[in-house]
Amino acid sequence: MTRRVCTILIILFYILTTVTSYHLRRQKRIVGGRAAAQPPVDDPVVYLTQSDRQARIYGTRDPNKGFYVFRGIRFGRPPVGLNRFQRPIPQHLEGEINATKWGPPCSQPDINGKKIIGSEDCLFLNVFTPMLPDASDGYPVLIWIHGGGFRRGSACQYEMRNIINKKLIVVSIQYRLGSLGFLSSGTKELPGNNGIFDIMLAVKWVEDYIEYFGGNPKKIVAFGHGTGASAAFMLALSKLSKNTLSGLIAMSGSILSHFAIDKNPSSTVQYIASTNGCPTSDTIEMVRCLQQIPVNRLIEVDSSLETIRSTIDGFLSGLSNLLGPGPVIEGNDDGRFLPNLITNTPENFLQFEDFPSIPLLMGVMNNEVGGAIFGDYKTEIENKLRTVPDFLNKYLIPTLQNTISNFGNKSHSITESFSRYFNVFNTGNNSAQIAKIAEAMGDTLYNVPAFLTVNYWAKKSEAFLYSFDHKRKRNCNNNFLAGLPIVKARHADDIPSHGDDLGYIFKENTITGESVQCDEESNEENERVENVFTNLIAEFARSGTPNITVSSQGDSLFSNLLPKFSSKTNPFISITSTPRIMEQFRYCEIGLWTGLAERLKSNTCNFLKNTINIVEHEAQKVKNIVTNPVKTEDRIADVMPNFTVLKNETKVPKIDDLMKNTKYKTQKSMSRSICCSFRSDILELISELGLSSVASIVSTQISVSVCLIMSSGDVDCGISVSVTTSIE
């Protein structure tokens, strides 16, 4: 009897121990201990406990790809009522959460601009994961920031494709758009940048919760396209998100892009407020008034501003400008109010290396604006070429120069230097002219900002560059950036243009998340490009160093590391079905637009060589005159026979007066000084007494005053040389 009782007790103890052990393992997974095996694949549930909060999040499983999706998870409280135009308030996970449906997109115009869609209550995100938590350290996390000109787009447009099978977690997020997200008066009452603060709050949510979905909170890579890429840079550059990101991926956008920053926010807020019938002199009253305006009315006024800005210069403004409210530079904190997000100019952030030491992967399309230029804009361009006198030199080139004015050449006299680059304008070939316009706009709006960004980034951290050169063979990418001028006027050929690369990473949905049916046939070449591209992104997210598949001979492929960007060789990968590692990215074109004289003087860039030689020759003549003063017109005429020489009949100012005038560059030598005054647009040329940058290589007129001044200040001689050059 005793033996039987003992046996029963042993059995009961075993059962109790087994049940307790299972319960403890289950409890550990719920409260965040070592993860247990994933739940049944068709019934994904995430359990979590943080502090005194508990939550269950119910998701779905993709029946075809097998990954898990948790849709429409709120990360911020509704930014409505008095919370409109305010920084977002976090929403913690708690209770039962149904994450099986998309959240509404943020308020915006529809694809045709005729209706308003979405909701002001839109701070939702989606989590795509290949596996629920297990005993591993967690997968790297990509945070997807959609583009759309800070006016359009949603997280639910982007359904994950093959990238989710690369052992990554992707979180797609939403942020307030238009005036609701970016209107700024430049004051503490309306500082702006709330859309970027939304993104920052979503990243904080990922830091706090992603481990419960199988992700590694220490491996977070911000990943954006167009204005979404610009926003990703702002996130990385802000001290408020310090030590948050482990990497940055930027597709067709940069912090230096012309569309990244609203350069005239006061004009924007004046228009938005006055058109909505709100006061503009008292910021507090203006904000109170705008908080009462119906959301649809706000979006309609945003659209009217977009129409005005996109038609000022036609296709030039439609493709290059920020067409509505956008991020602003707030300036340094004063210590009295909430800390600012963007405290300096993008140029200063990069030039002074005030950015985190994290790897950067940056990419551009082969012909970013080609699809639009050969689309609906083609007729407008043809009309301008036919009817606007000297459209190239008076409108196109100055406008494009202005898009990179902080880094490029500011002298309009450089226009002559483009004569060889734009030589097709002398042929009468309309198609060739339009193609050259597309190339030039692609360079100034996308390629130059990308080059400058990776060039600066590589001085402090690792940076990598790619060019997506695969010709488009997809017909299902029309909804990703729907409504933007750069895509709504698309031409239907195979030009690899803005947004075409998105279809190789994501499956396309409508703006509200409905699946788009596409009758596109399976294409082996497309699948190959998709595999190359997603592998590049996945490997970068995992290691910070992209490992890519590179063509060797014919179809023979081998694995290779993409070399780090360097200012000497400018390496990049050309993404096609047979990708190649190449060097000197857009070498001559970037030299032209940014004023890199050494490039333009090289044998590689011979399209400007003759022009440079002419100007160098004339510059040497000026140097000879300055360093070897002469007193007679005849002597000057001998040295510079093609120049008009005028004798100076007026007394030259004394040296003390010259020293006070910043227009003069004065060099003292013993008891004598040689003083030269020059036009401001060629100051660099003369200060170096030679060719130092393309910013100074061409001037339609050079005015030189040469004087020899005794130590007493009396004028010994005075000669004025007026130099006129004409370069064909």
Report on this model:
It comes from Heterotrigona itama. This is Carboxylesterase type B domain-containing protein. Belongs to the type-B carboxylesterase/lipase family. Residues 55-585 form the Carboxylesterase type B domain. Keywords: Glycoprotein, Signal. The structure is a single chain. This protein has 728 residues and is of the alpha/beta class. The protein has a domain at 58-182 and 192-263 and 285-327 and 357-625: Rossmann fold (3-Layer(aba) Sandwich). It has an 11-stranded mixed sheet with strand order 3-4-8-11-9-12-13-14-15-19-20, sandwiched between helices. A 5-stranded antiparallel sheet has the order 21-25-24-23-22. Helix 5 (265-275) packs across helix 7 (295-311) and helix 13 (430-457) packs across helix 16. The longest helix has 30 residues, at 2-31. The model is unreliable at 19-37, 551-558 and 630-728 (pLDDT under 50).
